[in-house]
Design brief:
- With about 260 residues, the chain is α/β, with parallel strands linked by helices.
- It is built from ten helices and eight strands.
- The longest helix has 18 residues.
- Bound molecules: zinc ion.
- The site of zinc ion (ZN) has 7 residues, from helix 2.
């Protein structure tokens, strides 16, 4: 076994840092996976935003606007293999989940079901897994460890919310980009369905739909329709971020 001088090991480490530089995807700062400032940009607090065409009384909550720093962190997490960003992103989703659960009039005796919008098979393959379901699990774990969560939310005392991948794609849909709000709704009508194995699980239960980004709300509305058609009661929806620019949606421009 060759003895390697310590200086050479350090040299290799430095070379490794050049080959795989660590940097914050939000601002480009090097030598940190995500900086405190960008972490704070996705952490919440959650805010409420109304959605056109949604059933009245639904709570729609999110932690940040989808632009600048939050958009860059989300894209790095989703499309560039930065799964380590799941933890800071889950903090924001947890704050939205807590707010949605607190606003919902849910069945106090039973745990809330948290249902992620399903990811297409192609996207799962490309990303190496169902990132959204994993993010929802991390958010639930974080929300569940928040002191006073269950009593404040008035739900599932002693029983943490549970993530259930209850939905699947029932048919292919067009790319939503470029479609109007009405076009998106038409494109998505009947596009999702409850997995046969999850029908009995969701029937009669309180559900919150979760997703990483909401634009018009058409996807989440279709998710809610599919769940409701199987007897579930959709009590709200929460998102990490919203694309809308409107009063109440924080504007994290970062270094744009
Ligand atoms: Zn940063």
């Amino acid at each position: 076994v060759a003895v390697v001088p310590l200086g050479m090991v350090e040299g290799w480490r430095a070379a490794g840092a050049l080959i795989w530089p660590v940097s914050c995807p939000g601002c480009g700062r090097t030598d940190v996976a995500v900086c405190d400032r960008c972490r704070a940009a996705v952490a919440g607090p959650a805010f409420f935003t109304p959605m056109v065409g949604w059933p009245p009384g639904w709570g729609v909550w999110a932690a940040c606007g989808y632009r600048g720093v939050p958009a860059r962190l989300l894209n790095a997490w989703k499309e560039r293999g930065r799964t380590d960003l799941g933890a800071p992103l889950a903090t924001g989703l947890a704050s939205a989940l807590l707010a949605a659960a607190a606003a919902a009039i849910a069945d106090p005796g039973r745990p809330l079901l948290v249902v992620p919008v399903p990811t297409s098979r192609a996207a799962r393959r490309r990303r190496g897994g169902d990132l959204m379901a994993e993010l929802a699990r991390q958010a639930v774990a974080r929300a569940g460890s928040t002191p006073g969560f269950a009593p404040d939310a008035g739900i599932g005392v002693g029983r943490p919310p549970r993530v259930v991948r209850a939905l699947r794609h029932a048919r292919p849909v067009l790319d939503q980009a470029g479609l109007s709000a009405a076009g998106r709704r038409a494109n998505l009508r009947g596009a999702l369905s409850v997995r046969p194995g999850a029908r009995r699980l969701v029937a009669g239960r309180d559900c919150v739909v979760v997703d990483d980004v909401v634009t018009t709300g058409a996807t989440a509305a279709e998710a809610a329709r599919a769940l409701t058609s199987e007897g579930a009661r959709v009590v709200g929806a929460c998102f990490l971020s919203v694309t809308l620019r409107r009063p109440g949606v924080p504007d994290h421009r970062g270094k744009d």
